Amino acid sequence: xxxxxxxxxxxxxTLLTLVMAATMLGILAIIAYIFLKGLPALSPExxxxxxxxxxxxxGIWPAIxxxxxxxLGTAVIAVPIGLLAAVYLSEYASDSPFTRAIxxxxxxxxxxxxxxxxxxxxxxxxxxxxxxSSIAAACLTLSIMxxxxxxxxxxxxxxxxxQAFRLVSVxxxxxxxxxxxxxxxxxxxxxxxxxxxxxxxxxAGETAPILFTGAAYFLPQLPKSIFDGTMALPxxxxxxxxxxxxxxxxxxxxxxxxxxxxxxxxxxxxTLIRSYYRSRRQW
Amino acid sequence: xxSAPPAPKFVVENLSVQYPDGTESLRNVSLQIPxxxxxxxxxxxxxxxxxxxxxxxxxxxxxxxxxxxxKVLLDGENILSPKVDLVALRxxxxxxxxxxxxxxxxxRENMTYGLELAxxxxxxxxxxxxxxxxxxxxxxxxxxxRLDEPAGAxxxxxxxxxxxxxxxxxxxxxxxxxxxxxxxxxxxxAKVEDSLQTIKKKYTVVIVPHSVQQAGRLAxxxxxxxxxxxxxxxxxxxxxxxxxxxxxEDYVTGRFG
Amino acid sequence: xxxxxxxxxxxxxxxxxxxxxxxxxxxALIFLFLLQEGLPALSEVxxxxLLxxxxxxxxxxxxxxxxxLGSIVVTLGAAVIAxxxxxxxxxxxxxxxxxxxxxxxxxxxxxxAGLPSVVLGFLGILVLVPLIRTGFNLPTGLTALTGSILLAxxxxxxxxxxxxxxxxxxxxxxxxxxLALGATxxxxxxxxxxxxxxxxxxxxxxxxxGRAIGETMAxxxxxxxxxxxxxxxxxxxxxxxxxxxxxxMGEVARGTTYYHVLFLIGMIxxxxxxxVNILASSMLFRxxxxxxxxxx
Lengths: 283, 257, 296
Prior knowledge:
The complex is a heterotrimer.
Chain A: H1 2-38, H2 44-48, E1 51-52, E2 57-58, H3 61-92, H4 97-111, H5 114-128, H6 135-159, H7 163-171, H8 176-205, H9 233-242, H10 249-280
Antiparallel strand pairs in A: 1-2
Chain B: E1 10-18, E2 24-33, E3 38-42, H1 49-56, E4 67-74, E5 77-78, H2 86-92, E6 93-96, H3 107-117, H4 123-136, H5 140-143, H6 156-169, E7 174-178, H7 186-202, E8 204-208, H8 212-218, E9 221-226, E10 229-235, H9 236-239, H10 246-252
Parallel strand pairs in B: 3-8, 3-9, 6-7, 7-8
Antiparallel strand pairs in B: 1-2, 1-4, 4-5, 9-10
Helix pairs in contact in B: 3-4, 3-6, 4-6
Chain C: H1 3-38, H2 40-44, H3 47-50, E1 55-56, E2 61-62, H4 65-96, H5 99-114, H6 117-136, H7 144-168, H8 172-180, H9 185-196, H10 198-214, H11 217-222, H12 241-248, H13 257-295
Antiparallel strand pairs in C: 1-2
């Protein structure tokens, strides 16, 4: 009896370890494979020049620029709204049915399929507000999609600031906003930053929401204003891996690698910020 | 020349405080806090003394749904009235908490925090009140070369004196102290208690002590609280030596609590 | 307090309140616009056609069943793969792995969550599709199964992190109690910790699969996009609801029946995710309540 219990445990733990190892190796394999296949394609020319010959030659510069624009634009809209919403939930809202409704709404926003965001962006921003298929419409769409991630991570960061700091600040004659601005926000900043970057990382890699709101198949020049459409890395990868016959595999892998590096770099920055400040925190 | 007794700083009339869960923390308390003296509120835990302390700067209001009945007058003005500007009130009535909570910034920033909140931006004024505050809390000599270090790097005793000093720097009228020495070693405790003797010349001090002994050492005036009621009120020198009420005597002599 | 400061406080508080309400506003807006653009489809297309088995928009046949089936098949396939892998990984991270290993494994799973779905779809086309074709000896590797594998990978991070959180939230005293009674570590996990975290793990699975059913790009790239109904759909090309919208919206004129039907599909997807999330969060909420009762 005793032996069999230990044997069961050994079998179970071995299985768990194997499954976990398979999962991790799978993730590692995906990343390593793209690096291996994509690295030969990377060159300054590939990154900094326009695509030519029906995108079968040349570089991916406009797609890179487009993704940077979309990411920054999304940040400009989503970060202030998301941050203030998090401040509301953590510092101002009482525990009422209405607050609970807000939380349910946030959970739901997080769950809505990205392609549905695309539909919504098309209906509201592109058509109803007349922005057309443009960077502006795409950024607005991506912003709403990113909002729940920013709100929930920022709220968590705000809540982790010890209550005693707030009490002291208020007892010294601080208004609610002074307390938030001078004490709570600075202390929560690393956590907020981590959340913001993770949210933007998702926005940077998304295709479906910009499909009908701002992404362009091919543009001979860089966008000149926020009312122009733009190329974008994820959409470009989609196009050259499904829509262009006779596409050289090397360029495909190169594009995938650039997108991967873009996203991984954001992830890395977020992780570094988190661990750096966690080790330096005074409380 | 006969000088009239000074007007009380706080006048509490029939005060009851109820928390949102229905518990009544204070029942029908009336007393007067004299200015420029140390008033001690003491008694066993749950007696309502901290609630009274937090009524003086309306910090109870942070618990949503707290209800006040009766009146508390500060220099004749009812601070329980809904029209009271809580921010202004809290600038007049400063508070030191049981646990030292240095704000997560430098010593200097901790010291100027209160005045900056009030909109003071003149450097000379900030520097002067910082030094005054630190001197009054007997901390100046220890930290004058460490002003730009994080306040969290100070020792526990220094942190608590910093908390007192930063309240003094705001130049309030009243200083509330909620068991300010409960986490301190005897030497630090003595330093805090000593500084109170100078501080009270300028300010009104209301303190919830962390032991009966401390209550006896500090009290110019004292109130004994039991289960939300003020059992006895009087001058410190009388109340601890010859209490009039049996329950006070039992507590002071250590028979319960 | 000065007048200016009071005004500032008032304005900022208003702004914060406004942003706080924004989530509700956006959910409502999304629903309203889907309704406005999708509802006309119900009057323009007879219900019998919508419930039909044929999706040929050119001939005005808008049968949604094959799309629904496609989405369900792919998601179920993903569930079969992702649940064991996800829960096992979560158990390993929460219960078995030492602390330092945990600190490495968790960001790793986060990386998977951050991988753009087009990247997975792209790898799917080049690597997975040929493998499936030769491995199962099929006419094409663009099958529901291919999509399921990718979706499993994409829902894995959600399942792992939510399940891991709920395992982590099981009070230590439960484990100590079981261990003190002489249970092995594994018996403790299997008989005490997992059952105690049951609703959290279920929530994790639901949220993961909720994400899977809404996934678009990767699925569109590897499932062949043929709207057909057959019992062995797993090994043949299928077409999901999300892929249908993504692939066809670009070519549809505004205001046509076709356009309205695509929005109707969007509405269905919205309602599915709404349902899944309400259910999942109410389950988590109840679990939390129960834990509080037990601990108080």
